[in-house]
Design goal:
With 733 residues, the chain is an alpha+beta fold. The chain is 50% helix and 18% strand. It has a seven-stranded mixed sheet with strand order 14-26-25-24-15-22-23, with helices on both faces. Strands 6-5-7-13-8-11 form a six-stranded antiparallel sheet, with no helix packed on it. Helix 20 packs parallel to helix 25. The protein is elongated. It starts with 7 loop residues before the first strand and ends in a 6-residue tail after the last helix.
């Protein structure tokens, strides 16, 4: 019997001690062996997402990780955003010392002119601290892994360095290599079968440490976008208590508190402006560079900056409920996910190291038994061990995902997970909602046309009183206009039909207000002419029925967003066929479609019709993206191959989408598809080069065509290349 989702407790753990993708794979496998536990470990973010069944304590999961040879802990609730971390700093110090000692060993070994009498003992004195202390992290990890019957990249490096150093020790102390006058040659490609391999032990250590250090720094940079986003915010705030301002910590704010935001200050938390007028710079949250004018009644988001006058804001959401905190959680969840290609890479890296150990042993035996010297066979085997380290394979997906989602958050695009990225590659059709998506959604009442004998003001008051219970932009426009004209009455027995209209009773009169076909009214000629006139002008028309008789029509205007036409052209340039799918009348929909350059229009669609149309497109072999913001779009967003929700819309629409746009701009949807495709392209490029590197390099190493020094440099470069390639996503515009 399946365990209900509610029975699981999701927990995030910070993992320490991982050095490659094989480590992450081992931890993940151990955690998933716990009864009922589902775990995913991300090497790039150094975090594990663990779903624990009821009755399982998080301490049990931590104990399993520690028994595997790593550390685990619950994340710090308030992490300090430092430029460097202790692990990176320690790697930097170790690299500096080993480079200072190891590079002279390389020079002595490769330049015969530098080989003075007894030079080999100086090389030994310099190389030994490098091979023992410098490579100690690899040796220690290899021993820990061996205790648990496992092998990782550290095992390969440790064996390679130890074999080269111990063989050199044997040649120096037991053979003739320690004799005065000893000389040797160095070959960049292949091996001469020399008696000493001190430069191999030293330089392999230096290059691998260099790769680790550069990788650690680059990985920290890859997460900088999210850290910068979460670090935004005020530390204290002036709260009004009985008309007096008191400075308190932001953590002490409660919903309902009113606080002051002066020019240049950061808005402390999400809220609604109750007094004042100003321009607010929301670029940190939405990516929009132009400040937005706000006044009483407008919502503001915590983390934005007041660029104009003094504001008084009433807090609506605090702490973990704020938009900024929710954005952070969404991005972290996306970064912890794994694309299908990464899951394949994890499985490969899990078996890759043992296979490489076997290949290295076979290489040594093959060369030795074929008549080559033991030294040449050893050097070739060490090259195989070093070149095969699967670091780049493990970094290919998570680093690109880390940078891409972080950059997306900076420009107002939230990606829910790798699956959304993979969907963007295949999408060929984009279905657009009209109201609030292609248009601004800021409806205003354009006209009230009552039937003969009725007063327009009375009709507006009754209709507005009923629409005051509606969340639809059209209904809100009517309610706002009615409230401005005078006090509203109380509506009872209110029933809203999504995408169609609303019914109820106001002052003893039964009202139905909505689409003409839903209202079921036989309109007189004057009202029918008014309806056709306003629909032909692109306005949305509501029919009002009182006690079963037509009472009038209301026309509501909604302006097309200035960027919508450019956005439609952008979709076409990405190979997507645009479709306008709306609940509005055919004429209104066609007017808007003509304004933005859409040919394919489906009008009069209820929520179930939208769902059916998306499924019909999919049945035709289309891969469909849906862009919407309302409750009536949620079902279509959920069933679409790619759901893009405007974050300014309803929570249910945002939850149903795969991508969420923080700013209300259709052009952001184009950017979201572009960023997703760019990120996916980077992931695929990284994986290609990581696989191609190992596949191409292993035979060269086994054939004796790669010196271990060159192999270690190439291995380090491959990891740095993958991370640096991912960092290019930070320049996305």
């Amino acid at each position: 019997m399946a365990v209900p989702l509610e029975a699981f407790t999701p927990v995030e753990l910070t993992i320490g001690g991982m050095t490659c993708a094989s480590c992450a794979h081992r931890i993940e496998k151990k955690l998933n062996r716990m009864p009922g536990v589902e775990a995913s470990v991300n090497y790039a973010t150094e975090k594990a997402t663990v779903r624990l069944p009821s009755g399982t304590d998080v301490a049990d999961a931590i104990a399993v990780v520690e028994k595997t040879g790593y550390t685990a802990a619950l994340p710090d609730p308030e992490p300090v955003a430092a430029e460097t971390d202790p692990v990176t700093a320690e790697l930097g110090r170790r690299l500096a010392v080993t480079a200072a000692l190891g590079l002279p060993v390389l020079a002595l070994s490769m330049v015969p002119a530098l080989q003075f009498t007894n030079w080999q003992w100086l090389a030994f004195a310099l190389a030994s601290p490098v091979a023992v202390w410098g490579a100690w992290p690899f040796h220690r990890a290899a021993v820990v892994n061996a205790r648990h019957g496992a092998a990782t990249m550290d095992t390969l490096v440790s064996i390679g360095v130890a074999a080269a150093w111990l063989t050199s020790c044997a040649s120096l102390f037991l053979g003739d290599a320690g004799m005065p006058g000893m000389h040797m040659e160095f070959r960049l490609w292949g091996s001469a079968g020399d008696e000493l391999y001190l430069e191999v032990a030293a330089v392999v250590t230096v290059f691998v440490l260099a790769g680790r250090y550069l990788e650690a720094r680059a990985r920290r940079r890859s997460g900088a976008a999210l850290r910068a986003l979460l670090a935004v915010g005020a530390k204290d705030v002036g709260v009004l208590r009985d008309g007096v301002e008191h400075r308190v910590a932001v953590g002490d704010l409660r919903p309902g508190d009113e606080f002051v935001v002066r020019p240049g200050e950061t808005v402390a938390t999400d809220g609604t402006v109750v007094d004042g007028r100003s321009a607010v710079d929301a670029s940190v949250v939405t990516g929009e560079s132009v400040p937005v004018e706000v006044t009483a009644g407008d919502d503001v988001v915590g983390g934005t900056v007041n660029a104009g006058g003094r504001l008084v804001v009433r807090a609506t959401r605090v702490g973990a409920d704020t938009a900024l905190a929710r954005i952070g959680r969404a991005v972290e969840e996306a970064q912890s996910g794994k694309a299908a290609a990464q899951r394949l890479a994890d499985r490969v890296s899990g078996v890759f190291v043992p296979v490489v150990l076997v290949v290295a042993l076979a290489t040594f035996l093959g060369w030795w038994l074929s008549g080559a010297s033991a030294g040449h066979a050893l050097t070739t085997a060490v090259a195989v061990l070093v070149i095969a380290c699967p670091c780049a394979l493990g970094l290919a997906t998570p680093t690109a995902l880390l940078v891409g989602t972080g950059r997306g958050a900076q420009v107002g695009i939230l990606v829910k997970g790798p699956e959304a990225l993979e969907a963007t590659r295949r999408v060929d059709t984009v279905v657009l909602d009209k109201t609030g998506t292609v248009t601004t959604g800021r409806m205003t009442l354009a006209a009230v046309v009552p039937t003969q004998g009725l007063d327009a003001a009375d009709l507006l008051r009754r209709t507005g009183s009923l629409e005051d219970a509606s969340e639809h932009p059209v209904g809100r426009a009517v309610a706002v206009a009615a409230r401005e004209a005078g006090p509203l009455a109380t509506a009872t027995d209110v029933v809203a039909t999504a995408g169609a209209g609303i019914a109820g009773t106001v002052g003893g009169v039964a009202l139905r207000v909505g689409r003409p076909d839903w209202a079921h009214a036989d309109l007189p000629p004057a009202l029918r002419d008014a309806l056709e006139e306003h629909e032909s002008a692109g306005r949305t028309v509501l029919v009002v029925v009182e006690d079963g008789e037509p009472a009038g029509v209301l026309a509501v205007a909604d302006a097309v967003r200035p960027t919508s036409r450019e956005a439609v052209a952008g979709f076409r340039s990405l190979g997507l066929h645009p479709v306008l799918l709306t609940g509005d009348h055919e004429r209104t929909a066609r007017t808007v479609a003509d304004a933005v350059g859409i040919d394919d229009v489906v009008a009069g669609a209820r929520p179930e019709d939208k769902l059916a149309h998306v499924r019909a497109l999919q049945a035709q072999g289309r891969v469909v993206a849906v862009v919407g913001d309302g409750v009536n779009d949620a079902a279509a967003l959920a069933v679409a191959d790619l759901g893009i929700a405007l974050g300014t819309g309803t929570d249910v629409a945002v939850e149903a989408g795969d991508l969420t746009l923080v700013r209300a701009d259709l052009l952001a949807a184009v950017d979201a598809v572009r960023l997703s495709r760019r990120t996916l392209s980077t992931i695929r490029g990284n994986l290609f080069w990581a696989f191609a590197y190992n596949v191409a390099a292993l035979p060269l190493a086994a054939a004796g065509l790669l010196n271990p020094v060159v192999a270690s440099a190439a291995m380090a470069f491959s990891s740095v290349f993958v991370v640096t390639n991912s960092l290019r996503l930070r320049r996305f515009r």
